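Sequence, please.
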């Protein structure tokens, strides 16, 4: 899969500009109705001298989506999101990120089993539990270090909190990956406290490729719901007050040993399904609600 960037609009603009300039003089009024503007000899000469830049292409690794470089809104605006948590999600702020790739899906049990068999790494806590061990379900019962080890084995890394949030919501500050109105059919969450899947179809974790209609603007699936996802950052509820404008990596370890996770899970209510929601746990913790997905740096434009 490739992304292409065209430069035709630049060429056209130069042609029109040169044609317009060649027709200007004194106070003479030139009628524009039904006028066809042809490029002048001067304009053609300029175009011939312009360097011809080839269209840029980006090879997207299999199973990942591309998130281009640029700004996005991170955190919550209380005027737009009444569910926002003032302790963790304020202030909403603009962040610039370099381009990156992120997995389209959460890492599955099938993916993680290959890693365990190849490296001898310890199995997930729920590897023999039929509620959570289907090959297509996201792996759960993995501590933060297990997620890091898997990511390194496949040549990737965990996303930062900022990368995760941009991949989930895009650049317009939307509340959920699909927009600003909650839709119970677009994510796997705790259906009205009943844990029976009567709204979303799943009582517990769904296959990683479920809920395609709830994908983020970049095509990442299950960014909210299904399982919460470890990210690389240490957690600090006040970090948004001091985080750098460009490529924030999270705070230094404050000695508490807490790592951030994002996205909430099938166990959480709809108010936790928001892109800006953030939480944390002990670096050694594992449980049936937490998994992960991987990220990778994208090549910088020349």
């Amino acid at each position: 899969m490739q992304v292409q960037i065209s430069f035709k609009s630049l060429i056209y603009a130069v042609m029109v500009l040169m044609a317009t300039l060649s027709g200007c003089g004194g106070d003479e009024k030139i009628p524009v109705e039904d006028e066809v503007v042809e490029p002048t000899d001067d304009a053609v000469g300029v175009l011939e001298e312009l360097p011809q830049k080839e269209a840029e292409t980006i090879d997207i690794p299999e199973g990942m989506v591309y998130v281009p470089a640029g700004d996005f809104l991170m955190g919550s605006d209380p005027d737009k999101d009444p569910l926002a948590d003032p302790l963790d999600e304020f202030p909403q702020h603009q962040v610039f990120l370099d381009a990156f790739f992120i997995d389209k899906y959460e890492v599955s049990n099938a993916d993680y089993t290959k890693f365990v068999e190849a490296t001898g790494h310890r199995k997930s806590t729920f590897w023999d539990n039929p509620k959570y061990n289907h090959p297509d379900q996201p792996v759960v019962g993995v501590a933060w270090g297990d997620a890091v080890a898997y990511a390194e084995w496949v040549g990737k890394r965990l996303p930062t909190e900022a990368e995760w949030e941009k991949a989930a919501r895009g650049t317009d500050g939307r509340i959920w990956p699909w927009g600003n109105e909650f839709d119970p059919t677009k994510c796997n969450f705790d259906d009205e406290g009943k844990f029976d899947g009567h709204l979303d179809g799943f009582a517990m974790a769904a296959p990683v490729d479920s809920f395609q209609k709830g994908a983020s603007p970049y095509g990442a699936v299950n960014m909210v719901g299904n399982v919460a996802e470890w990210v690389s950052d240490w957690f600090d509820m006040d970090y948004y007050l001091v985080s750098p404008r460009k490529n924030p990596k999270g705070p230094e370890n404050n000695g508490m040993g807490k790592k951030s996770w994002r996205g909430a899970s099938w166990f959480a209510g709809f108010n936790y399904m928001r892109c800006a929601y953030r939480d944390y746990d002990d670096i050694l913790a594992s449980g049936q609600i937490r998994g992960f997905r991987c990220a990778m740096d994208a090549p910088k434009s020349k």
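Confidence is low (pLDDT under 50) at residues 2-40, 43-48.
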